[in-house]
Amino acid sequence: MTSIEPAHRAIPATEGEREQMEAAFRAALEQLPENTGFPHAVRELARPLFDSGWISGVRTGHTGPALADVPLPPYTFGTALANLSAALHADSGPSIGQLVSYHGSQECCHGRYWVTRIERELDRRGRESVLYRLSDYRNGAFVTAPTGVHTSSVTALSQHWQM
To answer: Residue 113's closest CA among 96, 129, 130?
Structure first.
């Protein structure tokens, strides 16, 4: 019978690995063009993935000698991916066919609507702008209500359109 236990016990990053990956992460950020403008929050989401990749590379001998063939604890990747996944879903906003609550500047239009169109554009600085078309559903058809609605003016509700 073959053992399913790993040949080496998993251990977290060592102090030397942390120093190496810190220097490598700084060097990677310095290589980015000046106008990239990654916000601090994005860098912090990328950091655990970079760290996991760096340590994995070190331990498999791809970035220099260290704890070769010693695996990282499974939670290292799980934590990095969970944080990234949560951030991506939190920032993605409502989707087409989703019920939202509109609370924008047009007070006469406040209420619940269905998202029937999403327009995404980049401004001159490369920042994404998202605008929504919201619609009522009346007599078996969608009727356009507020258009050009900014993300900050809507709150996604859990309900999606179902045929």
So the answer is: 96
Burial of 107 (0-12, 13-18, 19+ CB in 10 A): exposed
Cα–Cα distance, 134 to 162 (Å, whole number): 17
Instruction: Give 129's strand partners.
Output: 121
pTM reported for the whole predicted model: 0.46
Beta bridge pairs of residue 136: 143
Give the count of beta carbons closer than 10 Å to the beta carbon of residue 32. Answer: 10
Q: How many Å is the Cα radius of gyration of the chain? A: 23
pLDDT tens readout for residues 45-98: 778 878 877 777 777 665 554 455 555 566 655 666 566 556 555 556 788 888
